[in-house]
Specification:
This protein is an alpha+beta fold. It has two domains: 249 residues, Methane Monooxygenase Hydroxylase, Chain G, domain 1; 62 residues, Methane Monooxygenase Hydroxylase, Chain G, domain 1, CATH 1.20.58. Strands 2-1-3-7-6-5-4 form a seven-stranded mixed beta sheet. 19% of the residues are buried. It is 58% helix and 14% strand.
Length: 317
Amino acid sequence: MIEIYYKNGNINKYTTIDEIEYVPNNIFSIRFIDFTNLDLKTIAEKFNLELSSFGKGEDIEISSHYIDSADQLSLNFTIPSYAPNTIFEERDIYILIKNDIVFTFLSSEIEANLNQLTHFIYDIENTKFETYSELFLFQIGVISDYYADIVELISKKIKDLFQETLKSKKFKEKDLDYIAELRYNNLLIRESLSEFQRILLLLNKSDKNKDNTSSKVREEIDDLAVIEDYLQYNFSRLDDLNGNINSKIELEQNHIFKILTIITVCISLPTLIVGVYGMNFKNMPELNWVFGYQFVVIVLIVSFIIPLIYFKIKKWF
């Protein structure tokens, strides 16, 4: 799907590129949602865009994510997306500026998440943009808010798990798996946030960043630095949580080993006695006793009870 934001405030949606009548002077922004690789060639030709940065999302070099040419500015980065399961998924976002138009390429999942956040925080219906730079800075601000939102989500999950850990004494492997998932999500956010920060730092130094926009970019950089601190707090909390659960699991295992030790010792003495009388030697005086059987049963019971009393005194149970 393609959304075009016109300078008169209208928003038109198209399903194919051929439907669009491209008049640059009338357009603020064009958003391509769930585009395909086959669409890129047509898009590049129709809108005269340089799309060499596409497909380089995994490159480490910042030059693959920030390209500032004479007539076009290209930004591309990955952003964690909410997923049906507990693990986030990385999605690419491409933002290009050319002919005073903001071109945005993103997936429908990220589009839905950003729209939901935008309508929750801003009065978007009554928000009007006078220039393309205002719209671009607004998009940057929404993305920063999105990072804050997902970091807050991870923080809440960690706190909830911490409270459950303090109350519970029973833990399973799935608890440690859940911690690993939270750590992975936090790691995805940190990597994406770091990449976005580097892009904004370069944008802040760019000649295209005019005085009226540089202050806004610096504000977003400062906000991202605060979010980065919260990410580090999350890692510290996860380390504490992992250590706490492992300690409780070890205590539970030690308790089980104690129980097994008690049972083993209590059974070993009666087993020894039974083994002696099971030898069936001919000269065993107890075999001829009238109360020999009763005597041995009493000895077995006493030999079982004495270790129990001993461990009870030692407060093993």
